[in-house]
């Protein structure tokens, strides 16, 4: 019986690999399952998504979901370029990647939330400013809600493409110690005086998530148990006070 189960699991894996190969031509998808015992009794689904990032390199990101008897586990492959940030050559506290919208920038943190709106990291005045973290957040992304700001530029730089994200898109944040993967679960418009501009402790997590889901313009089935990443940019006509909010939930830490 065990031999039959192993053969069945192997046939499923081979069938999925063949399907991916035929769909992609000569590109081969390689998937490694480290614990062979988890293969038995599991249902496998593989999805190959090709992303474009700002350096114009096309990355194939393989995603494998394992729904095992012991519980559900998702393994998310990190794009190769995400691992290449050298923090010895920058004052940035992190690097943010959203491959689905060609967004890739360093993240800075100032003493307030005004300086990087109009200045570059080199101290030059600029209407583009920088992508920057809320001044009151911990720079290691350990808060229950970490907020990152950026201008919505007409030339589509900075957070100029943030309005194009979709629910379930991934956000990668790289720090000197970790690579965090967030999955978007909510996106909506609100005013600059919104109550969603807050950091909070773990006891307020569920209430905040419920508000974000209620406000969202897209439905979501994303797991929202993880710490929250909130991205904010201007929306609408200049000085209208409208803001675009995008919330992601932490789904993986490496």
Automatic annotation (TrEMBL):
The active site is at residues 151, 234. Keywords: Hydrolase, Plasmid, Signal. It comes from Butyrivibrio proteoclasticus (strain ATCC 51982 / DSM 14932 / B316) (Clostridium proteoclasticum). GO terms for molecular function: hydrolase activity. InterPro entries: Sortase, Sortase_dom-sf, SrtB. This is Sortase B family protein. The keyword DNA repair does not apply. Residues 1-25 form the signal peptide. The keyword Transit peptide does not apply.
């Amino acid at each position: 019986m065990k031999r039959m189960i192993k053969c069945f699991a192997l046939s499923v894996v081979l069938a999925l690999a063949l399907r991916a190969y035929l769909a992609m031509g000569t590109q081969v998808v390689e998937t490694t399952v480290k614990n062979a015992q988890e293969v038995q009794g599991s249902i496998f689904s593989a999805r190959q998504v090709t992303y474009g990032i700002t350096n114009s390199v096309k990355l194939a990101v393989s995603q494998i979901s394992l729904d095992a008897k012991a519980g559900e586990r998702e393994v998310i492959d990190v794009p190769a370029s995400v691992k290449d940030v050298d923090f010895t050559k920058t004052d940035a506290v992190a690097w943010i990647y959203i491959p689905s919208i060609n967004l890739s920038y360093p993240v800075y943190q100032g003493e307030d939330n005004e300086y990087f709106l109009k200045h570059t990291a080199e101290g030059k005045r600029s209407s583009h400013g920088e992508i920057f973290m809320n001044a009151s957040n911990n720079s290691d992304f350990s808060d229950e809600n970490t907020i990152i700001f950026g201008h919505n530029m007409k030339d589509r730089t900075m957070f100029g493409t943030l309005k194009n994200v979709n629910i379930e898109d991934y956000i990668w944040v790289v720090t000197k110690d970790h690579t965090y993967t967030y999955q978007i679960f909510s996106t909506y418009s609100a005013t600059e005086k919104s109550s969603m501009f807050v950091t909070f402790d773990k006891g307020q997590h569920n209430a905040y998530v419920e508000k974000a889901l209620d406000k969202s313009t897209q439905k979501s089935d994303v797991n929202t148990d993880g710490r929250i990443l909130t991205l904010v940019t201007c929306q609408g006509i200049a000085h209208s006070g409208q803001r675009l909010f995008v919330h992601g939930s932490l789904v993986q830490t490496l």
